[in-house]
Amino acid sequence: MLAQIHIILKNGVLDSQGKAVHHALTDLGFNEALDVRVGRYIELKLSDITEVEAEALVTDMCEKLLANTVIESYRFSLAPNQ
Questions:
Q1: Largest Cα span, the chain
Q2: Which helix (H) or strand (E) holds 75?
Q3: Is the pLDDT of residue 82 over 90?
Q4: Can you tell me whether residue 82 is helix, strand or coil?
Q5: pLDDT digits over 16-61, tens only?
Q6: Domain locations in the chain?
Q7: Which of 32, 49, 56, 62 has the highest count of CB atoms within 10 angstroms of its CB?
Q8: Contact assessment for residue 66 and residue 49, using Cβ atoms and an 8 Å cutoff
Q9: Could you write out the DSSP letters of every residue in 11-66?
């Protein structure tokens, strides 16, 4: 099973990297970009386990290591290994 995890700073937490990217886009003339948030994307290949087990396992991984849940939120989806 493949876990696709997206981690981003929570609303209200200063995203200095996002602000820098937004500023650079504006300087390049991309004025349509109103705001930029920069996050992380992680792919995890998991052993043969059920979807229920995978959800619990990935949630545990995110809560304990992958995301700083004080300032970051995460979401993930599961797909069959290809």
A1: 48
A2: strand 72-79
A3: no
A4: coil
A5: 999 999 999 999 999 999 999 999 999 999 998 999 999 999 999 9
A6: 2-79
A7: 62
A8: no
A9: TTS--HHHHHHHHHHHHTT-TT------EEEEEEE--S--HHHHHHHHHHHIIIII
Instruction: Provide the token pair at 14.
Output: 């200063």
pLDDT for the residue numbered 81: 78
Listed in sequence order, the residues at least 6 apart from 26 whose beta carbon sits closer than 8 Å to its beta carbon are: 33
Q: What number of other Cβ atoms are within 10 A of residue 35's Cβ?
A: 8
* Residue whose structure tokens are 């209200």: 12
Q: State phi, psi for 9 to the nearest 5 degrees.
A: -65, 145
pTM of this prediction?
A: 0.89
Domain 2-79, second-level architecture:
2-Layer Sandwich (3.30)
pLDDT band at 79 (very low <50, low <70, confident <90, very high): very high
Give the span between the Cα atoms of 4 and 2, in whole angstroms: 6
